[in-house]
Amino acid sequence: MPQDHRTITVSLTADPYPILIGEGLLGRLGSFLIERGFQSGTRVLVVTNPEVQGFHGAEALTGLESSGFVVRTLVLEAGEERKTPATVAAIHDAAFAHRLERSSLIVALGGGVVGDMAGFAAATWLRGIAVVQVPTTLLAMVDAAIGGKTGVNHPGGKNLIGAFHQPKLVLIDPRVLVTLPEREFRAGMAEVIKYAVIGDEQLFNDLEQAAERDPRGALASREAMGPELLQRLLERSAAAKARVVAADEREGGLRAILNYGHTLGHAVENLSGYGTWLHGEAVGLGMIAAGDIAVAMGLWSQADQDRQRRLVAAAGLPMGWPALDPDVVLTALQADKKVRQGKVRFVLPTGVGSVTIRDDVDPATIRAALAVAASNVVFR
């Protein structure tokens, strides 16, 4: 098979797996699974949502059936508000009806919500069967589909119920982003910016240069960005995630840096009601607030914070903190998964390309950062 795609390996000790990135890969999903050791005749449950099914379901189905897989498709209404144990139970019901065995697999065809739920269902069906991630949103391509974190939400917080369950393969076809709404694309750019801030100064510079060439929105849509820059961003982001996951598979230390912007971002999602803000939009707000906290603590410069603000704005992401009671936000932070012995751990930038983890952020500093974020100062 011609190598018309980029392969990035997540180098886990026990079970490494590839991330394939290239135009037109979706229709060849079955052949890539055969290469990974799956047998013709294997039962496959494809989990997706109505929009993705309408645009891409037929191509995925043909790609699987042409390699001899026995496929059934489960179409679920997706959305953060439906990311619940009840939805996972519906996947389990479909797995039972399709007679999935230990050698079977679940394919997650969709965004981060579908990937999280399908991955968690795979982790818990027959005590664990294979899952393959086929992300169809930018956010899922650069973040959610890679690394094996699966789960669903609890009324008390986001992703409190879950498991680590690594995929056997991640297949990324940038062509499917043609059907992605621009708001979803912009939300995915928040995670790309995250990777740039936490560990890839060159990626940050590339994003800045693109924004300078087209200040009207080079980072806010697939069309404005162009295929070459998009491919480069996908590769660098996936490689960054793969390096961190390989070094810390179960978030015992280093992997926590991937939560940059997520501590306060999750509070925005939860307190505003799931579905009000897209995950990436909330992460963008969380990064801005974390940057303000870092400035207040003397960890990084106001100049770097201004650069981050400009980049978030160039991606077309929301800049103003929502009208949330600071006391309620501080209480919500205590439910975050990253709390240790009652202390909230923040990932804070120390420079473009480097971050630190701190558990000594004073509540007054958090309040001040929220006030600054609420002022809706936009840097263009």
UniProtKB/TrEMBL annotation:
Occurrences of domain 3-dehydroquinate synthase C-terminal (ranges): 188-339
Name of the protein this chain belongs to: 3-dehydroquinate synthase
Cofactor note: Binds 1 divalent metal cation per subunit. Can use either Co(2+) or Zn(2+).
Pathway: Metabolic intermediate biosynthesis; chorismate biosynthesis; chorismate from D-erythrose 4-phosphate and phosphoenolpyruvate: step 2/7
Cofactor(s) listed in the protein's UniProt record: NAD(+); Co(2+); Zn(2+)
Pfam families on file: DHQ_synthase, DHQS_C
Location of this chain's protein in the cell: Cytoplasm
Residues in 3-dehydroquinate synthase N-terminal domain copies: 74-186
A molecular function GO annotation: 3-dehydroquinate synthase activity
Binding-site residues for NAD(+), renumbered to this chain: 112-116, 136-137, 149, 158
Catalytic activity of the protein: 7-phospho-2-dehydro-3-deoxy-D-arabino-heptonate = 3-dehydroquinate + phosphate
Role description: Catalyzes the conversion of 3-deoxy-D-arabino-heptulosonate 7-phosphate (DAHP) to dehydroquinate (DHQ).
